[in-house]
């Protein structure tokens, strides 16, 4: 916002982008207690995913936990995001998705 001071000079609010932060906020603090993403997470946490885990063969690189993947997909669908590329983008850019993925 620009204002004219008493001297007639233009003054601006302080703007310093890209400042280093020492304590980034916890993602948990940025998600409201009643946000849909918390409901999805809670519901999936209560599910027994043993049948899904049993399908993993093991070996190779570490796999993502099935509960985390299920949470992300269900929340994405609730947000009308169906494409794997769009889900990957949401995981990089949207706080609720970051929170789910831990």
Shape: elongated
Our Rg estimate from Cα atoms comes to 21 Å
Uncertain ranges: none
Q: What is the H/E string?
A: EEHHHHH
Fraction in helix: 40-55%
Question: Could you tell me the mean pLDDT?
Answer: 88
Strand content: 5-15%
The end-to-end span amounts to: 37 Å
Strand order of the largest sheet: 1-2
Which oligomerization state do the chains in this entry correspond to?
A: single chain
How many E strands? 2
- Secondary structure tally, helices: 5
- Please give the largest β-sheet: 2 strands, antiparallel
Structural classification: mainly alpha
How would you explain this protein's 3D organization?
The chain has helices at residues 36-45, 50-54, 66-78, 84-93, 95-101, and strands at 2-4, 10-12. Helix 1 packs antiparallel against helix 3 (66-78) and helix 4 crosses helix 5 (95-101). It contains five helices and two strands, in the order E-E-H-H-H-H-H. A hairpin with a 5-residue loop joins strand 1 (2-4) and strand 2 (10-12). With 102 residues, it is mainly alpha-helical. The longest helix is centred in the C-terminal third of the chain and has 13 residues, at 66-78. The mean pLDDT is 88. A two-stranded antiparallel sheet has the order 1-2.
SSE blueprint:
Blueprint: E1 2-4, E2 10-12, H1 36-45, H2 50-54, H3 66-78, H4 84-93, H5 95-101
Antiparallel strand pairs: 1-2
Helix pairs in contact: 1-3, 4-5
């Amino acid at each position: 916002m620009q204002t004219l001071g008493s001297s007639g000079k233009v003054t601006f609010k302080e703007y310093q982008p890209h400042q280093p932060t020492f304590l980034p906020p916890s993602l948990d603090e940025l998600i409201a207690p009643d946000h849909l993403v918390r409901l999805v997470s809670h519901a999936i946490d209560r599910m027994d995913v043993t049948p899904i885990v049993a399908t993993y063969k093991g070996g190779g690189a570490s796999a993502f936990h099935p509960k985390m993947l299920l949470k992300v997909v269900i929340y994405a669908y609730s947000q009308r995001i169906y494409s794997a590329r769009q889900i990957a983008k949401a995981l990089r850019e949207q706080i609720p998705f970051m929170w789910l993925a831990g």
